[in-house]
Amino acid sequence: ASAGFQRGWSVLDAGCGNGAYVPLIQQHVGPTGRVMALDFDIVNTELVSRVTRAPAAVGSICDLPFASRQFDGVWCANVAQFLSDAAFPTCLQEFRRVVVPGGGVVVKDVDMTATRFYPGDPFLLSHLSEVSLRMKGAPPETRGSLRGRELRRWLEAAGFEDVEQRTHVIERWAPLSHMESECMAQWLSYLAEIAIERGVCPEDEVAWRDIAAAGGRTFVSRPDFYVCEVQVVAKGTAP
Q: What is the dihedral angle through the alpha carbons of 198, 200, 206, 209, rounded to the nearest 10 degrees?
């Protein structure tokens, strides 16, 4: 809703994944609008086309397979974090290229520096981020997942105008719904696997192993469980 897409617009969902945002964008652009989905995985594009009826293309967000000035808007959610600081500007220039003058480009991503869960050491994720950043050959998302609240500056540096940024704090308290519980359990188990693999301190490793026990489900089922995350939405206008 904060993206500002208007009825009748043509919008590209860049890095659509399983297409969760496509129906939401379709609602905002209405029956006279159009949503095009893009993902590097053909399995995703086929799924999106089948479920949402939106056309979908296979390609990279850093090398969009579209002509210039083809869309009124671009939406990119939870993808930029997987780009390095060197690649992200290329991606933004591609977004700028494919939108019409006055079109809107919106990037949503996480800021892992603000993520917190309870019970547990409030610095567990901070320690993991620090260890990850210092490791040799760290993957791009190690840095990208910490870039969320910098997005406005990146869009400004890419030449977008009227850049705005909104930070959304999302909190979940026990008891969780089944879907929330499964999502949180899988996510925390994934983080625990990374933490152990990357060699956090012994005290943190013990904590992560406790969290990951039973696939994380025991931990997220605690009556005092709490988790918060910060999602950032930055948008700018193409000159």
A: -30
State the helix-helix crossing angle for 22-29 and 42-52, rounded to 10 degrees. Answer: 50
Strand partners of residue 13: 37, 75
Q: How far apart are the first and last CA of the chain?
A: 22
Distance between CA atoms of residues 170 and 102, nearest Å = 31
Specify whether the CB–CB gap between 228 and 219 falls below 8 A: no
Q: Are 63 and 87 in contact (CB under 8 A)?
A: no
Q: How distant, in Å, are the alpha carbons of 4, 150, 204, 219 from that of 114?
A: 26, 13, 18, 20
3-state secondary structure at position 172: strand
Largest CA distance in the chain: 58
pLDDT tens, 107-145?
A: 999 999 899 999 999 999 999 999 999 998 899 999 999
Residue pair 113/229 in contact (Cβ under 8 Å)? The answer is: no
Closest CA to 39 of 66, 61, 71, 62: 61
Predicted TM-score (pTM) of the model is 0.93
Place of tokens 């995350």: 229
Provide the 10 A C-beta neighbour count for residue 138: 14
Element (H, E) at 181: helix 178-198
Going from the C-alpha of 65 to that of each of 12, 37, 62, 115, 199, the distances in angstroms are 11, 12, 10, 35, 40
Rounded Cα distance between 150 and 23, Å, is 28
